[in-house]
Design a protein that fits this description.
Blueprint: H1 8-19, E1 27-28, H2 36-43, E2 50-58, E3 61-68, H3 75-82, E4 88-89, H4 92-99, E5 117-120, E6 129-132, E7 138-142, H5 144-151, E8 154-156
Parallel strand pairs: 2-6, 3-5, 5-8
Antiparallel strand pairs: 1-7, 2-3, 2-4, 6-7
Length: 159
């Protein structure tokens, strides 16, 4: 697999994916995948098969919530289920500091330090899902089980 044609951030994600044994290759799309709706349209898939990577701050540390594109996170309910303090959406600067990536392109891995992670239980409803790969125009195919494995995540309902 050659990755030198990809943006630098996506090359980092591709290397992390390969190191984790992920077979799906990072793809750069002509259209934006910044939102779940844009990604679903560009990929021709159901919006629920898009794994949004959302960074929150909880107990003074960044955490990652990988949610189905068809769901909105209920921070109070998720914090309770996860056994964490309050969840507050991270600012764009906090997202970049925690992940090295920009909002709309945050990958599940390839961050300076692995983040505590939750995978939305609803992602298991799809045999293939798509996640961002470090930029708002790069994605990779995966499964909910693979996401849990490569991020050492807990699976929980997020709504």
């Amino acid at each position: 697999m050659t990755i030198d044609h990809l943006p630098t951030r996506s090359q980092e994600v591709a290397r992390a994916l390969a190191a984790a044994g992920v077979r799906g290759e990072v793809r750069e799309l002509a259209d934006s995948t910044r939102t779940a709706a844009e990604a679903a349209a560009a990929l021709g898939c159901d919006i629920g098969a898009i794994a949004n990577s959302l960074v929150f701050i909880s107990d003074d540390e960044p955490v990652l919530v990988l949610t189905s594109g068809s769901h909105r996170v209920n921070p109070e309910a998720l914090a309770h289920r996860w056994g964490r303090g309050e969840l507050h959406r991270a600012t764009p600067d906090q997202v970049r500091e925690a992940t090295g990536q920009v909002i709309g392109g945050v990958a599940p891995l390839g961050h300076p330090t692995p983040l505590p992670t939750v995978v939305d239980a609803a992602l298991s409803d799809y045999p293939q899902i798509w996640a961002a790969a470090g930029t708002p125009r790069t994605v990779f195919p995966t499964t909910a089980a693979e996401l849990r494995r490569i991020t050492n995540a807990t699976e929980l309902p997020v709504t």
